[in-house]
Design brief:
By secondary structure, the chain is α/β, with parallel strands linked by helices. It contains 15 helices and 23 strands. Bound molecules: nicotinamide-adenine-dinucleotide.
Length: 492
């Protein structure tokens, strides 16, 4: 059913602003259908939003933390009440299956609730009485935060930033991706309505807006999730004014299957398939290359294909039997297709996976049939690049030293997983260079908002989630009251 396109606004200083220029967002399942229009803000409007956040900060920084929590909790309740409507919009603009959109909202709410419950732990001053007097350590808000988010998990990757930033007394200007700008705008409207004007501002657009958000001298911190290449430009833009930064970037997360893995464990194989193909593989922490010990490789591949053919059901995101929808955009379809074609040309074996539930949509929408790539070279693009789509290479390894080296030679280190007997897997996990390593599960199935999340090497800087993620929106301020005011080695 084709609906009238919706229109979302930007939010500047508590007011909804419509722009002359707008950007249509198509439905990846039916690309001829425009789901809605997002504004294209100008540089001047972006500066207005930053100024609004800068002015609002003066009072908001000193607001009562209980008041901030109460406001966030009201927003949480309203988002909860609107889950069905927001999830439907997200599936239409993004392409992810409806259960997946609802899951994204559920994770967002879980995190927002955690942030409300733990913000006091993060900002309560520490008072130390010691032999040389007293020291008070406070955790103060930083200032205006520019938040820039990608299209794959637009709501959770925005609320992961909004909740801790506002709860700790910062103000924010958020810019979502033009590839999924609509549902997240609804969420921002709900949150912004609960807070004083200027505390949460929303702008839309591409490079012009992004460059202002990352170079304007009134911005104190950048919270960015997106590609590593974009992060490099952002670091350059931010260097003039030495901004604080949290960067959550790309990954090439590996799953390592040890010889102690039970290939007859159907639940574990299902978890592995989900960790490769949830959201059509478009998750930063999806397992993007799988290394399997040669002694169980053949059996593993056979059982994996069985599990994948059962769980992967490709089709319309609104078909309740569908587990995997289309890819979000045309560029991504072409990129993933080119990686698979190149691997095949270079001698790899490509095996289609899953059932196609809506064959009539395959040509119309941005669909890619999920594939398994066997016999690729260890250093083929499909193995070393972040494919961010529904394809995965499985490769055999001979010994653990070799697989640890293959894992760690990547420029990335976001998440990883080790599969096998628990203690054996933990031993290997300790040698892995990554921000998170999961045992016998991977990707969002092993995500826990109570603990810090982030990447090592070129997968990022800093951590989100956990109390550490809340604290990353604060500056440590030490107030020293020493008893002995003069240093003995300084002459009279
Ligand atoms: P992207 O880097 O292309 O875009 C991310 C955001 O940056 C968008 O809002 C975009 O408009 C904006 N942007 C583009 N150029 C900019 C500039 N010069 N200055 C400021 N902002 C600019 O990423 P994407 O394609 O939207 O998302 C996919 C990437 O995100 C993948 O690499 C994925 O791994 C990564 N990602 C990482 C995490 C994580 O937590 N580590 C989570 C999700 C996605």
């Amino acid at each position: 059913m084709v609906r009238e396109p919706i229109k979302v606004s930007s939010i500047i200083n508590g007011k909804k602003i419509d722009t002359e220029r707008t950007l249509p967002r198509e439905n990846p399942t039916h690309p001829d259908e425009v789901v809605g229009y997002a504004p294209i803000n100008t540089r001047e409007e972006t500066i207005q939003a930053i100024d609004a956040a800068y002015n609002a900060f003066k009072e908001w920084a000193w607001s009562d933390v209980d008041d901030r929590i109460a406001r966030m909790k009201r927003a949480i309740e309203k988002i909860k009440d609107s889950t069905d409507e927001i999830a439907e919009l997200l599936s239409r603009e993004h392409g992810k299956a409806l259960y997946d959109s609802k899951g994204e909202i559920a994770i967002s709410l879980m995190w927002m609730e955690f942030a409300c419950d733990h913000v006091k732990e993060a900002v309560t001053p520490e008072i130390k009485e010691h032999e040389n007097g007293r020291t008070i350590i406070t955790f103060d808000p930083i200032g205006v935060v520019s938040a820039i988010t990608p299209w794959n998990y637009p709501i959770s990757l925005s609320t992961i930033k909004i909740a801790p930033a506002l709860l700790t007394g910062n103000t924010m200007v958020l810019k979502p991706s033009p590839f999924a700008p609509l549902a997240v705008s609804r969420v921002c409207e709900i949150i912004a309505d609960e807070f004083p004007p200027g505390v949460l501002n929303l702008v839309h657009g591409e490079a012009e807006v992004g460059v202002e958000l990352t170079s304007n001298e009134k911005v104190a911190k950048i919270a960015f999730t997106g590609g590593t290449r974009t992060a490099k430009s952002i670091m350059k833009a931010a260097s003039e004014t030495i901004k604080k930064m949290t960067l959550e970037l790309g990954g090439n997360d590996a799953a390592i299957v040890l010889d102690s893995f039970d290939v007859n464990d159907e639940r574990a194989l299902r978890r592995m398939v989900i960790s490769n193909f949830l959201t059509a593989g478009q998750i930063c922490m999806i397992a993007k290359r799988v290394y399997v010990h040669r002694s169980i490789y053949d059996k593993f591949v056979e059982k994996y294909i069985e599990a994948a053919n059962k769980w992967i059901r490709l089709g319309d995101p609104f078909n309740p039997d569908v587990t995997v929808g289309p890819v979000n955009n045309k560029n991504q379809v072409q990129y993933v297709r080119s990686l698979v074609e190149k691997a095949e040309k270079d001698g790899a074996k490509v095996i289609p996976l899953g059932q196609i539930l809506n064959p009539e949509l395959m040509e119309e929408g941005y669909f890619l049939q999920p594939t398994l790539v066997l016999e690729a070279d260890f250093h083929a693009d499909i193995v070393v690049e972040e494919q961010f789509g529904p394809t995965v290479p499985i490769l055999p390894f001979d010994d653990e030293e070799q697989v640890i080296e293959l894992h760690n030679e990547s420029i990335y280190g976001l998440t990883s997983s080790v599969w096998g007997e628990e203690e054996h897997a933990i031993k290997v996990a300790r040698r892995i260079e990554a921000g998170t390593t999961m045992i016998n599960t991977a990707a969002v199935q092993g995500l826990d908002v109570r603990f810090p999340f982030g990447g090592v090497k070129q997968s990022g800087v800093g951590r989100e989630y956990g109390v550490e993620g809340i604290k990353s929106y604060t500056e440590t301020h030490v107030i020293n009251i020493p008893k002995s005011l003069e240093l003995p080695y300084i002459p009279e």
